[in-house]
Q: What sequence folds into this?
């Protein structure tokens, strides 16, 4: 597609429920990143996919968080048993170079609110 | 581990005046440096990057940034600010050994008419 597409744009969920956030990167971009942006904070790295390599999961804050990328394209970030501190904007980005030297293209994000 | 500091949460400048948004970094080895801008309810947009070469980098919308190795800084500048430049600006760094960018906490720029 022309840009990075994320869905839903907004999600309100009850504490304890599971949520799935979707990212559709730019066609042909081999690298895909998930970041979290909390109010008043910078962007926190979560996970990185590059081609068929094993993902870098070093930024995932707990085992309630997981992500997959099917067919080297669409990615899903899953948060199980959501907590209020999970409330944030979840941003997905893709890039054509594995090293990110070309700059990332970000989606508009999913605003998650846990009530 | 790498880090990025944006010492100012908020920068206000009058339209037509020059603007500077500060960024300092800490990284081992040669840094790759980036600036992104975020408009309200939008994703981040790439502004410019420094990889190697000329220390003065020119980017989108008339912005530029100067890489200063001795001061470990990468300040964002524009000679004449526009009201439409008002947004949240993020500096980011990637050391040669890493794959992902580390972002600063952001600086809210407000250009006053």
A:
């Amino acid at each position: 597609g022309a840009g990075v597409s994320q869905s839903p744009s907004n999600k309100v969920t009850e504490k304890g429920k599971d949520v799935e956030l979707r990212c559709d990167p730019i066609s042909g971009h081999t690298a895909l990143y998930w970041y979290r942006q909390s109010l008043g904070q910078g962007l926190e790295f979560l996970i990185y996919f590059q081609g068929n390599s094993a993902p870098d999961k070093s930024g995932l804050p707990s085992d309630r968080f997981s992500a997959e990328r099917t067919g080297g394209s669409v990615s899903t970030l899953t948060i199980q048993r959501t907590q209020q501190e999970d409330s944030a904007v979840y941003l997905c980005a893709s890039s054509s170079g594995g090293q990110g030297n070309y700059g990332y293209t970000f989606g508009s994000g999913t605003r998650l609110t846990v009530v | 581990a790498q880090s990025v500091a944006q010492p100012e949460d908020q920068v206000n400048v009058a339209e037509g005046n020059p603007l500077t948004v500060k960024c300092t970094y800490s990284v081992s080895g040669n840094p790759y440096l980036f600036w992104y801008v975020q408009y309200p309810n939008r994703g981040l947009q790439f502004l410019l990057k420094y990889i190697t070469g000329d220390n003065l980098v020119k980017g989108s919308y008339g912005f530029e940034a100067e890489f200063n190795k001795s001061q470990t800084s990468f300040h964002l500048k524009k000679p004449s600010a526009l009201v439409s430049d008002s947004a949240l600006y993020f500096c980011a760094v990637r050391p040669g050994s890493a794959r992902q960018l580390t972002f600063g906490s952001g600086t809210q720029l407000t250009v006053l008419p």
